[in-house]
Amino acid sequence: MKILLSVLIFIFSLQYWAKADNIRDFEIEGMSLYESALNFFSQSEIKDNEENYYNNKTFKTATMSSRKFDLYEDVQISYKTNDKEYLLYDISGIVDKNYNSCLKEIVKISEDFNQMFSKTKFEELYTFKHNSDPSGESEVSDMYWEFKNGDKILLACYNWNTSFGKKKGYVDEMRITISSKEFDTFLLNE
After folding, report:
1. Could you tell me the sign of the dihedral formed by the alpha carbons of 55, 42, 73, 110, in that order?
2. Mean local confidence (pLDDT), 115-137
3. Contact, 77 vs 49, CB < 8 A?
4. Distance separating alpha carbons of residues 103 and 114, to the nearest angstrom
5. How far is Cα 128 from Cα 119, in angstroms, rounded to an integer?
6. Which pLDDT tens digit goes with each residue over 144-155?
7. Domain-by-domain residue ranges, the chain?
8. Cα–Cα distance, 14 to 17 (Å, whole number)
């Protein structure tokens, strides 16, 4: 079932992405960068699902679940803390998926992405320690395509099958992310 779901995610995602000329044309569950999250969620829904991930309070992130989502189990959205419009600077579609299965899948997906995004800068699969796990056991493996303006599309696998991940109740996951240059820079400096 999970393999079928992932294949469907990929196929339906391509319908949007194959037609896009710039990152603003890409969508995750109908959402695009730089539009208001209020077009999809109420302010109270967003506030109720905010996470306290960052020391620097420039941005906030909310993890949203909805029966209305067609392709993803959750969607994580990020926006500036004091922005009353809740403009989206980062959107991730998330599906629970075994880490090793995820790695195989994103490598396959990347072959098509390389053709679709042939004019972008491509960064090969890279694995690093997740900074929230003090033990250094939890890992993220990702690859990305960077547009001329610095915005990115990422494919990532999260390995939470660790002591830290189990303690937090996290499960391995696959993410497809649309990220602005501003938010990506924020994360790198966080």
Report:
1. negative
2. 92
3. no
4. 16
5. 26
6. 999 999 999 999
7. 2-183
8. 5
